[in-house]
Structure formats: C-alpha cells, structure tokens
Amino acid sequence: MTEPHVVSALRAKRAEISGYLKELEKQIRAWRASLAHIDASIKIFAPGPDPETIPPRRTYRRSGYFQKGEFSRLCLDELRKANGPVSTADLGRVDELTQV
After folding, report:
1. Which residues fall within 8 angstroms of residue 43, CB to CB, at 6 or more apart?
2. How far apart are CA 4 and CA 8, in angstroms?
3. Binning pLDDT at 50, 70 and 90, where does residue 13 land?
4. 10-31: b (≥16 Cβ within 10 Å) or e
5. Rounded Cα distance, 15 and 29, in Å
6. How far apart are CA 92 and CA 90, in angstroms?
7. Contact at 8 Å (CB) between 78 and 95?
8. Is 15 helix (H, G, I), strand (E, B) or coil?
9. 84 and 78 in contact (C-beta within 8 Å)?
10. d(C-alpha 54, C-alpha 57), whole Å
11. Is 89 in contact with 78 (CB distance < 8 Å)?
12. pLDDT tens-place string over residues 48-95
C-alpha cells in the first residue's frame, strides 16, 4: 500500500525543510541577541523611553527579476506607446497595447 519512493521523497523533503528551520532558528537567536545589545545601549544613553515601544521597520528585499528601476521604466515606456488610458490589467498584456 505504501509506495517506497513516495515515502523516501517525503522524508528527504522533510529533512530539507527541517534543516532550513534549524538554520533560521539559529539566525533568530543571533538577531535577538543583537537586539538585546542594542536595547541595552539605548537604555544607557536614554534611560527614559522603553526600546520595546520603537515600532519595527518593514524590511525590503528586491526581486531578482528586474534591475533597479527597470520595471517602472518598462511600464512607463508601454504607457507612452499606448493610444489612451490603460488599466493595470491591460498593462500586463503589453503586446496588445502596441498593436492598436
């Protein structure tokens, strides 16, 4: 009833994900230690405010699909070629814009 190759593949995938989680947990511990050191430094220089009240900043990771500014340049180029207003759905189909 059980397929050995399916179970083997699932076990390998589980081991891979488990390895990723272990590595991420190590990174989390290191980041938490760094944060604790920074909080302690803040308390030394400004003992009044609680560092926990500082809101976290959202991190930004650039996609590997486009170079910096390339996506907006491509969109603007297609908007310049269009013969009128263009919806975002139409902008996704750039080949139809230039054929009008």
Report:
1. 51
2. 6
3. very high
4. eeeeeeeeeeeeeeeeeeeeee
5. 21
6. 5
7. no
8. helix
9. no
10. 9
11. no
12. 889 999 999 988 887 788 888 888 898 888 888 888 888 888 877 755
Which amino acid does the sequence have at 4? P
Residues in the chain: 100
Tracing tokens 């609680």 back to the chain, one arrives at 50
Amino acid at 98: T
Tally the C-alpha atoms within 13 A of residue 74's C-alpha that lie toward its C-beta: 12
Contact between 54 and 70 (Cβ < 8 Å) = no
Give 67: exposed, middle or buried? Use CB within 10 Å, 0-12, 13-18, 19+.
exposed
